[in-house]
Inverse folding.
């Protein structure tokens, strides 16, 4: 089972790499088109902004490569957000695999932004995954027909999405202790 | 709703986890990796690694330890100790830390808070504040890792936490020196006072001695998380037991299992 973590730049791919290395001996970090295309599973991490991640994919000629992947792909945090049409963050055009747009939290003063910490996610079909997960986000994905898990912070938003072979989670499974490990293992069953 | 956090803190000196009383008389209480692993498995919501000798000795937090701990745990990881430049912060984040906490360096160079927030985002910039009550007011102390270097700054706690927030801090950890290591409960009065000054998350530190202390501080509704060291190091109670007690009492807490 080969897993490739797309090196989309930004600091801190370390935790994602650590988490997947514990699960598979064949987890590599790469920006190479062939390695990405031939992997059994592709992880799209995202640290920083949608703009930064998209810029990195564009400059490495990976936009069409990613869009045409047929194996399971998991976008994490900003990596999930770029699956959408666009992000309000710097008005960035994204991959357009999920037909909706990422928005900025606009919440009452008692709700601090970024939304940061452990929050509960309710999975509609895979109920055993319903648990607390670790979030750190200022932008959110609205509920769409591709939403598979819901979180609430002032408003309800998509904690997880799935469209065909493209999966996404707004939380950080690599930082979410046992529930995060279960979530990753569940993804690796596809 | 975000769950309230239970945060064990590893105070590290010369490669060992130590714990003092009121920031003095440090004794060795355990091994870094062993404790990090135990706490992560036991349901800790975050781990703080604090190299207490770094600022006092003008050293930087040890790379090797940050890397080893990051590899061991799968919960958010905050590192503190002598992080006084953007380069050092970047290196610590690249080694696997999620947040960096600054204390003495922020007092010496308040602009550092803004620079870190601009470079890495407020969400990973924590400002630790060592606050001491002298019977009259709360004052901020610096270089508290060693009693020989500890000194009282000109800043009072209330204005300093406000300034830290304005400069871009994403979270404040308030270490109440009077309560540190004595396990008589958190300083609810001071925490409530500070809560009113800031809107970013506030973490209580200093004084946890029994599970009821955690319930008190959360029921008082003044903090987002509670940090503790000696109660967990000395196995007076486990994180799992504290969490079960809090859940049974209706606090919004993540069950670690």
């Amino acid at each position: 089972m080969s897993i490739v973590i797309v090196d989309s730049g930004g600091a801190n791919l370390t935790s994602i790499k650590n988490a997947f290395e514990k699960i598979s001996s064949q987890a590599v970090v790469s920006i190479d088109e062939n390695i990405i295309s031939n992997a059994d599973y592709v992880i799209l991490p995202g640290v920083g902004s949608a703009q930064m991640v998209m810029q990195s994919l564009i400059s490495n000629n990976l936009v069409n490569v990613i869009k045409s992947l047929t194996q399971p792909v998991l976008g994490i945090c900003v990596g999930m957000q770029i699956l959408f049409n666009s992000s309000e963050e710097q008005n960035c055009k994204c991959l357009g695999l999920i037909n909706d747009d990422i928005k900025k939290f606009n919440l009452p003063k008692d709700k601090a932004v970024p939304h940061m910490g452990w929050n509960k996610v309710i999975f509609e079909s895979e109920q055993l995954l319903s648990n607390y997960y670790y979030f750190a986000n200022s932008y959110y994905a609205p509920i769409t027909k591709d939403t598979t898990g819901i979180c609430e912070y002032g408003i309800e938003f998509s904690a997880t999405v799935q469209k065909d072979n493209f999966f996404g989670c707004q939380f950080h499974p690599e930082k979410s202790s046992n529930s995060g490990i279960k979530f990753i293992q569940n993804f690796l069953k596809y | 709703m975000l769950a309230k956090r239970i945060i064990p803190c590893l105070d590290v000196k010369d490669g060992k986890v130590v714990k003092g009383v009121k920031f003095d008389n440090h004794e060795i209480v355990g091994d870094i990796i062993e404790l990090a692993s135990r706490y992560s498995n036991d349901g800790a919501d975050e781990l703080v690694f604090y190299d207490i000798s770094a600022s006092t000795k003008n050293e930087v937090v040890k790379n090797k330890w940050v890397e080893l701990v990051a590899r061991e745990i799968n919960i958010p990881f905050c590192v503190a100790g002598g992080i006084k430049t953007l380069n050092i912060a970047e290196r610590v984040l690249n080694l696997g830390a999620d947040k960096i906490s600054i204390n003495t360096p922020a007092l010496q160079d308040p602009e550092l808070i803004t620079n870190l927030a601009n470079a890495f985002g407020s969400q990973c910039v924590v400002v630790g504040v060592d606050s001491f009550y002298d019977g009259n007011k709360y004052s901020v102390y610096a270089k508290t890792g060693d009693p020989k270097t500890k000194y009282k700054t000109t800043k009072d706690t209330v204005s300093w936490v406000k300034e830290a927030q304005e400069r871009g801090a994403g979270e404040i950890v308030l270490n109440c020196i009077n309560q540190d290591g004595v396990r008589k409960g958190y300083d609810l009065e001071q925490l409530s006072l500070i809560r009113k000054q800031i809107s970013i998350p506030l973490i209580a530190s200093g004084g946890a001695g029994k599970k009821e202390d955690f319930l008190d501080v959360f029921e008082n509704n003044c903090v987002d998380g509670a940090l503790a060291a000696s109660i967990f190091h000395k196995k007076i109670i486990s994180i799992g037991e504290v969490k079960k007690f809090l859940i049974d009492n209706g606090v919004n807490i993540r069950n670690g299992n």
Notes: Chain B touches chain A at residues 1-3, 5, 40, 43, 45, 70-71, 74-77, 90, 93-96, 98, 120-123, 170, 199-201, 224, 254-257 (CB under 8 Å).
